[in-house]
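pinging the channel bc i need a second pair of eyes. not urgent but kinda urgent?? the chain im working w is below, pasted from the shared doc
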Amino acid sequence: MLLEGDRVKLENRNYVFAGAFVDELARSGLRDVCICPGSRSSPLAISFARHSGIRKWTHLDERSAGFFALGIARNSGRPVAVVCSSGTASANFLPAVAEGRYGLVPLIFLTADRPADLVNWGALQTIDQTRIYGDHVKLSVHAEAREVTTDLMAYIRTLACRVYATSNVSPQGPVHVNFPFREPLEPSLVLTDFPENISEDDFEAWQGRVNGNPFVSNSVNETIPNIKNLKALVSYMSGVEHGLIVCGPNYQAGFANLITKLASKWKYPIFADALSGVRVGSHDRSMVLDTYDAYLRDDDLCTRMSPDLIIRFGPLPVSKALTQYLEKHRNAYQILVDESDNWRDPFRIVSQFFNVSPVSFCEALTPLVNKEREHNTWSEWWLQANSTVRQAIARQIDSYDKMFEGKVFSRLSNLIDDDTVLFVGNSMPVRDLDTFYPTSSKAVNFVANRGASGIDGVVSSALGIAAAAVTKKVILVIGDISLYHDMNGLLAAKLHGLNATVVVLNNNGGGIFSFLPQAAHKDVFEEYFGTPHDLNFKSAADLYGLNYSFIQDWDAFDKAVNESLLNEGVSLIEIPGDRADNVELHSEVWNAISKTVKNQKDLYSAL
């Protein structure tokens, strides 16, 4: 700051506003920002660059940047900011915005813009960015840097606090602030009137930098379920033996320990989605089922095993067989415990909805459950069937010398240690994880983008976790189309010196479509659904400076994974496959299980 008579020379208002906004985000708790290059966003980028309390991650591709930030936020549990310039740059954030909205991930999207008088007048790199993300964000604000006054400085700092709090409050999610900046965009000094009745000594206080606390204190609201409703539920459950628990994707710490203790008291088996955090870990897993996707494909079994009560936590599970089972038994009393405001009940089968976090629900319910039920025919059958089918799956896939995609996960279960992050792509990888990764005492963290469930941004999301989880090992298992879709994301590994293992299942096209009825239409299938590309990814590994292995047998796979976990940097392990073979091998597994299930149905009749 320089004084010239009754006027003060300071950086132009773009930087006064942006600097105060960034400073307030940091004081509210922001620790990471992803910055994409651009001229119009200079006030934001430079203000973040100057702030020593915030880590900066540079990205050349806005779509990759959004998903990279999503990975950091998923791992840390707190908001991460993303900055871009004006025009279509902001449109490239939309996939990550949507994933954050439906995946309940806290993100702060900061887009630069041109002033309103240039929008729709042919100015370059200018589109209408007001509410560009529609209802996919929890809050959208158009924040113009106007004259520098005491009131407006209070506004911009209060706005930063509100933006951070809104993103962070349950249910967490993305927010958007659009900044229309006028030139000059560089941090040049300009003369401005000194605020009335404020001395030079009070200048810092006028800017709002009064202490180390947020300008507006905020806290995350922790909504607890209605105790009266919980007591009624416990009373009802005391007379219901045929109950089940379904745990969908969940990343809340402590949930697994709470729900497994309750399940043990109720003797209700848990259908534990691989992403639920319940399937693996040191908690009590005596009631955990991990092979239901295999045996719930038997329609007769699903009809016989009719529940009276189903308690579901969080979003729908990955398994289609399980969701069809839930839909089939819509006459059962079905309870949904979910903090999302989306009412995730597409089949309209929920009887009672607790709009609270699963952890809050379990913490409130646990003191009300005193009696422990004895095992009964219902619980014993599910546990026995699960164990028998798990053995059948293991025998079948152990017999395969071919590079069967499902076997990748059974091999990984033996190779990885506690606290490893196993990130899986959508389409087939997440489904094979759910079917073939067995329950284990290892505390492995399974992660996937199941909010909007797209194949875009998967590489960047996984590398975002690698950036945040610096003490953990990160393994990504991804399909070839998904890797192709986000190859730009690999640049982050080189720019930021990240460590990770990327296993790409290259079956030369869209493998999941081979399991659909469209595959029978040979005249159109390959060109419009299979979409073969005839690519391998060695050149991509060379381009981005990654370690590379081409794997054709299981011993080589084990060696490559072990070496990648010991080495620094990112390793790309490519496994070639054939889509037709993959369908056939999956069918062989289901046929082997079908024979096992028949015996289990007879056993239930005997019980």
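so The first strand starts at residue 2 and ends at 4. and Residues 579-606 form the longest helix (28 residues). — does that match what u expected or am i reading it wrong
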